[in-house]
Structures are given as C-alpha cells and as structure tokens.
Design goal:
With 512 residues, this protein is α/β, with parallel strands linked by helices. It has helices at 20-28, 51-55, 61-64, 68-71, 137-156, 161-167, 177-193, 222-236, 282-290, 330-348, 360-363, 415-428, 432-448, 458-469; strands at 2-4, 11-16, 34-40, 78-82, 84-89, 94-99, 102-107, 110-113, 117-119, 169-173, 207-211, 239-241, 244-249, 253-258, 263-267, 270-273, 277-279, 300-301, 307-308, 311-316, 321-322, 394-399, 402-407, 410-414. The protein is built from 14 helices and 24 strands. Bound molecules: flavin-adenine dinucleotide (FAD).
Amino acid sequence: MRLPLHRPKRHHVVIIGSGFGGLFAAKALRGKPVAVTVIARTTHHLFQPLLYQVATGILSEGEIAPVTREILRRQRNARVIQALVEDIDVDRQVVRARSQDQELEVPYDSLIVAAGAGQSYFGNDEFATFAPGMKSLDDALELRARIFGAFELAEIAADDPAEVNRLLTFVVVGAGPTGVEMAGQIRELSTHTLRREFRHIDPAQARVILLDGADRLLQSFGEQLGTKAQRCMEDMGIEVQLGTTVTDVTDEGVSVRRRDGSEDFIACYCKVWAAGVQASPLGETLADQTGVELDRAGRVKVLPDLTLPGHPEIFVVGDMAYVEGVPGVAQGAIQEARYAVDRILSRLQPPHRPTAVQTSKERAGLTPADGGYDVAADPAVPAPAPFAYFDKGSMATISRFNAVVSVGPIRISGFIAWLMWLGLHLLYIAGFKQRVSTLVRWGLTFVSNGRSERVSTRQQLAGRLALERFGSGISGPLLRGEVPPPPAGVQDVTEQTPDMDSLGEERPGRVT
Ligand SMILES: Cc1cc2nc3c(=O)[nH]c(=O)nc-3n(C[C@H](O)[C@H](O)[C@H](O)COP(=O)(O)OP(=O)(O)OC[C@H]3O[C@@H](n4cnc5c(N)ncnc54)[C@H](O)[C@@H]3O)c2cc1C
C-alpha cells in the first residue's frame, strides 16, 4: 500500500538523513516559514566520531545517538519519519520511502539529500563478512562483541598457543583517524582494562596491527603529525605496517601484499575495516534522472551552490556530495547544510526587501503556485554566491591523554591536543543529557581505566550476517517475524562466529 503524505500549504522542505547534514539543516529551519520533514532510516542522530568508543566499551550507544524526534521536539515546524528512502522522483518532486510494509510518497518543494556514505571495500565486498566496517551503531556493537569475544575465546583455547595467538591478534585496516583511534583503544584495553581479569591468558600479549597501503599514518594531518602519531603508536606496542594492502580476508585471517611485492598471511580472529567510503546509492538515483556526474566513490558532483543541474530545488550535502576542497567530515556536512538552508530561505522571501514591506503570502512562506514569492521571476536577486568551506581543522586521539590536532598551519600533539579534542567533541554531541553522561563516563574511564559498556549479545555478534543470509535489509521481512527459509545453497555464515553461549552475554533483546 502506498500512502501519499499530504503536501503542506507552506513551502515543504524534505530532508533525507538525520546525520550531521540532515539534523543541522532541520535545526537551521527552526522558526522559519516552512514545513520540514526529516526522513531517516534510523531513529537517531549518530555522532560517528565517537563510534570507536562504543566499539571498545567506553560509551553506550545512547550517549552518541540521541533520538532525532526528541532533539526536534520543540521545533513545531518539523516532523520526523523513520523510513528508508528507496527512490526520488525528481520530475514529480516526490520522495518514495518504505517503513516496514508501508510505502510512503512524500512530496517536496525543496529537497536536501544528506544520506551520507557507507564503507567501501574497494570492490571486495566479500571482505565485509569477516571484517566489519565502522559506520553505524550496529557496526560498533558487532565490533564490541568481536573484540571482547576474542579475549573470552582465547581464555578457553589457552592450551593451544597457536589458536591463542590468532585470537589475540587484532588487525585494523586503514590508518586514518578511525583506524588510529581503534588500534589505540584495543591496545589500551589489552594492556590496562583487562589486566588481571583472565586466569589462563595474559591480555597484554595481544598483538594490534594497523595496516595501510599508504606510506604514512593520518594522511590528511600532514607529515609531521603523521610521523609523530606513528611513533606514539609504536611506543604503545602497536605494529604499524605501511605500504601494505589487503588481498583477502577469511575467517582465519588476512592476506596482505607488501610494497616490495611479497605476500604474507596474518592469522587473526578480529578484523576491523576502517578504510574507504562509498556514498549512498541515492546518488545513483539522482544521477540517472538528472544526468549529474558521480565521482569514483559515488559522490554527487554538485553545482557550486550545491544543487543539481536543472534542479535548483534539490541540494546534496555532506558525505554524499563531492565539492572540491571539502573533506568528508562533520564540519563539511554542517556548513553545506546551513548554506542550503540559506539558499532555500532566500528563494522564499525577497532577500532585498525588508520583512515589513513583504506581502503576507511572502512572509508566510507560501509557494509561488499559492501566490508566494518567486525568486526565479525576481530580477533584483543576484546569482547566489557559491558555497565556501571554512576549514576548522582536524583532530584524532591516539590514546588516553594523547591526541593530534591540525588547524591551518598549527600542529599540536600530546595532552593539550587531547584536551582540545575532548572539549570540541563534548560541544558537538547533541543533547544535554548525552553531554553530561558522556563527561561522567569519560571521567571514570580516564581515571580508572575501567570500561562500563562491555556487554554484548548474540544478536549484536551475528545479527548482520544472519540478516544478510536471509537477504533482508533493515525494513525487510525479518522485522515482521516472517523469517523465510535460507535460500538453497547459501552458506550459513553465522556458524563462523563464536559461540556466545560461553561469553557471558545478556539476554537477547528485540531486533530494532
Ligand atoms: C567512524 C567515523 C569517525 C569519524 N570521525 C570524525 C571526526 O573525528 N571528525 C569529523 O569531523 N568527522 C568524522 N567523521 C566523518 C563524519 O561523521 C561525516 O563526515 C558526517 O557524519 C557526514 O554527515 P552526513 O550528514 O553527510 O552523513 P551521516 O552523518 O552519515 O548521515 C547520513 C544519514 O542518512 C540516513 N540515511 C542513509 N541512507 C538513507 C536512506 N536511503 N533513507 C533514509 N535515510 C538514510 C542515515 O540513517 C543517517 O541518518 C567520522 C566518520 C566515521 C564513520
């Protein structure tokens, strides 16, 4: 059944995604004469920069993922729909989405597409089976189950030294900020948090290997900070292997090729894929209909005002958009979202006439069809200034009390950089409750080295693979309890995950 959602009388801005781009666009429209609909496939706004802390037991998922509906509860002109956008009909100006078995059609006057990016395995999607990425809460919780599960399995396999070595070898692929932060945290876990908890293994014996095809860690931070970060990681006992590309990933380990052409196999149980991004497939939908170009990562090559050729009403922002000189970071998405909102508002109300002399229909934000302002017919409006990105710098943590920060020509590392990292991340976490509880949690973790979010369930460990086995996406039949039989010949990949019955799991919750 397809449910058409009514077109509001006011100019209707539909926003796809509740990440940095989507949420900041919605908030920028607060109190403006428009109706706003945010459609996102998750109920939450995800603070991706702290996903690694969920994966390594420092923070809970609620602390980095406040519910979008709650964030926007006081914004009277905004509504939130949890649904997966499957199609955009640019000629009819309609977004088609699905929520479980309901299909929705949402008409729009302006559209902001901020559907972000997923993990890229550079054409080797099969690697994902054994090397989960780090893009969603599901990914982080699965990794948490794999990381802590590896130590549990090693304790049981203590009589088999080769198996213990394999279980206690952690390979992180990709030496960007996410890879560096993950490797650092796994090492801290093994050397500090888990000390004295096991009787048959020494967690500190765990090998943490950080791999990258490039010559340097943290490419975007420049040579000085990259070299410094590498030295710090090696001092912590992390093995940094640069000039190394992954050629295969199996349950048993990772095959790699070195720069000199030699091949190697690293036996390991837990792998983390922190390399490469692939933009949302909605980019292809837009390209098919408007002819806009995509780059190799599937990002939409938008016009200088972030719109599509021939479609001034469609904006693409954030990780989905390719804009020369704008990196795929939260600030890029936020600034693009705010620019898109400014553009939409300036089309609704004559920017060159004070509010007092605008007509009531213009002030009410009615569409041109309903007698509102029509920017296209207004000769006094100059061409829009192109989007300009203001680079506020980048930062990454290496370990407790140690981070690197790059702002313009300034390079800072160590404790001061870590304090800057701390302050900035607290500032950008959405929601007061989340900020307070994150601060408390950090205080406890940094002082005691303990981690209170170590629980994992069988569903977190095997859920992704089970869903894949049934060919089901997030709104597929599994959610309605109609589990189809496995397709003939499909390998039961869930058998390749450890038996969680032995891992002190909590009771399985519901699939959400
Ligand atoms: C592990 C990690 C660490 C990072 N660390 C940093 C950092 O330290 N500093 C920094 O600046 N940046 C960091 N980033 C990058 C930053 O998080 C992204 O650049 C930013 O989130 C991009 O915002 P966005 O709105 O474009 O996409 P996202 O934040 O990814 O949001 C996409 C939204 O679209 C929704 N969506 C996707 N497809 C659909 C669909 N078909 N239908 C409906 N909804 C859909 C998603 O549910 C989500 O709500 C990190 C990213 C990751 C993954």
